[in-house]
Write a structure and sequence with these properties.
Blueprint: H1 2-13, H2 20-27, H3 31-39, H4 46-54, H5 59-73, H6 76-79, H7 100-111, H8 115-130
Length: about 130
């Protein structure tokens, strides 16, 4: 989890103005868990990632953290399948099951300034669908 640890460290040392204890409290994580994540000494699971994301107000920082998490999990060979012909990262993300209208709407939502609210909708929708 080297990339995730780096992004998280940059966030905390940058404009966040928070120390580890304050950020851990904001996220609802144990300080020791946050410390191990920052050191790259433990893997980040989905629940810890969700907690970290709740503690980060900026959509751009959240995007970089999720991207780092995925890059830590997947091999370089696997990630190469997501790069488009024009070199755009994640361009190969499978959207083929969406209609053109749905794809346009999703791209709009992902680029929208209110991504924090949209993220909550996605999380709640996924949780609801998983219960079916």
């Amino acid at each position: 989890m080297k990339r995730l640890a780096k992004e998280l460290s940059e966030f905390l040392s940058g404009s966040a103005g928070l120390n580890q204890l304050e950020f851990a409290a904001r996220c609802g994580l144990d300080k020791s868990k946050l410390s191990r994540l920052l050191a790259g000494a433990t893997s980040c699971d989905a629940a810890a990632l969700d907690a970290l994301l709740l503690g980060i107000p900026s959509g751009d920082t959240r995007t970089r953290l999720v991207s780092a998490y995925i890059q830590d999990l997947a091999s370089a060979a696997a990630l190469a399948h997501l790069v488009g012909e024009d070199g755009e990262p994640w361009a190969g993300l499978e959207l083929g099951r969406l209609s053109p209208r749905g794809e346009k709407a999703l791209k709009f939502l992902l680029a929208h300034d209110g991504i924090a609210d949209i993220e909550k909708v996605f999380i709640n929708l996924a949780a609801a669908l998983a219960k079916k």
